[in-house]
Amino acid sequence: QFIFCRLCYKGWYEDNWYEVNLGNEGITCTVEQMRMAAEGHLTTEALMWNQNNQTTISGMTAEEFRLRLNHALIEEGYDINHDRYPEGYQEAPLAYDAVWSVALAFNKTMERLKRRNKSLKEFTYNDKDIADEIYAAMNSTQFLGVSGVVAFSSQGDRIALTQIEQMINGRYEKLGYYDTQLDNLTWLNMEQWIGGKVSKLRFKGPSNKIIRVPVSISNTQRKRLPLNRQKRKKQLNFSQLIKVQ
Fold it and tell me: Where does the signal peptide begin and end (predicted)?
């Protein structure tokens, strides 16, 4: 139980986070023990790549963007054929679409300011009026990018699909993903539980109190059902409470 708590504090997020740097970090568990502890755990993360082979605002599909990116990396000397990618490779689609977001927001801001006989070139960091125009333009920006549908919340956060994975036999397997905008959960029915039963996760927090997180996912087919319908049918039942004993 102590292992997972320590992992959170150490900030290990790579796919093999449970195997690396054990000695350097003062962790006394063996690699095999770490593998056993990690087996079956669930993770969530924002999807980085468009899941459909659609032409995006750039004129490329996500796959075409990936091929162009890989070609550029090979020319820079990266041995991607042996999985030698630079830091931040997975976030490349987000960075690319972020540039498009800024460009589109600036274009929209320029049009609005022009109607008021103002210019974006007049902007200073103390100019709240133009800053509000930029914020409004960014907040209303929406397009299909190589990372998926690009849109922003009222707080300015990127809205993205959330991917759900589980470690099965030492590898992360995709279980499904959730679309916040459409309130839609796509589930692939690939989950596996040790012993064939849904586990009750237990670990010790910083205060050494045991925290139980019961998790239950039914095997009912629920692919591409709106989440509110799933709740009514009780097909998805994540415990909303974490009990500290």
Answer: none
Secondary element (H or E) of residue 62 = helix 62-75
What are the backbone dihedrals phi and psi of residue 97, each rounded to the nearest 5 degrees, phi first? -70, -25
Does residue 122 lie in a domain region? yes
For residue 244, is it within any domain? no
| Cα separation, 64 vs 193, whole angstroms | 37
Residue count (the chain): 245
d(CA 49, CA 160): 10
Residues 89-117: tens digit of each pLDDT:
989 999 999 999 999 999 999 999 999 99
Longest Cα–Cα distance in the chain: 70
- Name which residue leads in pLDDT, 16 or 108: 108
DSSP, res 21: S
Q: How many CA atoms within 13 Å lie on the side-chain side of 101?
A: 26
The whole-number pLDDT of residue 66 equals 95
> 159, 188, 223: which is the final residue of a domain?
159
Q: At what angle do helices 92-114 and 62-75 cross, to 10 degrees?
A: 110
Q: Are residues 130 and 39 in the same domain?
A: no
CA 192 to CA 40: how far, in whole Å? Answer: 7
